[in-house]
Specification:
By secondary structure, the chain is mainly α. It is 80% helix and 0% strand. The protein has ten helices and no strands.
């Protein structure tokens, strides 16, 4: 049962899962980070309140977050095929993963930035800092520890999504479905679950250590 071909399949599936998770997270942050910043800036009491922009973005984020991932995966198959030329496999899975994760990331970013002490923002404004400077050198800089913790949470969430995305192929989720579910090979199912748990723990450990290292509140 556990010949070289099976072992290589598991290794390749693990690599595909990491590939989908890391690339999807990068794209999700490319979309979600500015979206979260805009939500904070345009919110009532923000640096530049804009009720219309805030309301539109708030509703869009809530709607996308409300759609179950598997349903979203199926809904955007035409879009996925348009972007990558196919709707099956690890690369194709990145599209729905990133779209599903971007609103989640935006909310995490929004929450992190809202934790920044308003007094620090007022101090920067009193010194003549413009909004762009305040956003990047005050809000983002002060919230960096929380942002890293949020990124760690996002990685774990997207990794879980990638396992569900096994229905369209790619990664450990695909192996678990094809062999563990359809072929009743419980040993392969158990191995894929253990590997997924291990990956989450490793990513969590890396993120926690990095956030602790950058946290100025922790005395050394």
């Amino acid at each position: 049962m556990w010949d070289n071909q099976t072992i290589m399949m598991i290794v390749e599936g693990t690599g595909a899962t990491l590939y989908m998770t890391l690339v999807s997270t990068l794209i999700a942050y490319a979309l979600g980070l500015p979206l979260g910043i805009v939500l904070v800036v345009t919110a009532p009491g923000g640096l530049k309140p804009n009720k219309i922009v805030f309301k539109i973005l708030d509703v869009v984020v809530n709607i996308v977050r409300s759609i179950p991932f598997l349903i979203l995966l199926m809904l955007i198959i035409p879009f996925t095929r348009f972007i990558v030329g196919k709707s099956y496999g690890a690369t194709a899975t990145i599209v729905p993963l990133a779209i599903a994760a971007a609103p989640f990331v935006a909310r995490l970013v929004e929450s992190s930035l809202l934790e920044v002490d308003h007094g620090v923002i007022e101090a920067a404004q009193s010194m003549g800092a413009d909004n762009w400077t305040i956003i990047w050198k005050v809000l983002v800089a002060e919230a960096r520890t929380s942002l890293i913790v949020g990124a760690t949470i996002s990685l774990g969430t997207i990794l879980g999504y990638s396992a569900m995305a096994g229905v369209v192929g790619g990664g450990l989720g695909d192996i678990a479905i094809r062999y563990g579910y359809h072929r009743y090979q419980a040993d392969i199912m158990i191995v894929t679950v253990v590997l997924l748990v291990a990956l989450v723990q490793i990513l969590q450990m890396i993120g926690t250590r990095l956030s602790r290292k950058l946290d100025r509140r922790i005395t050394r």
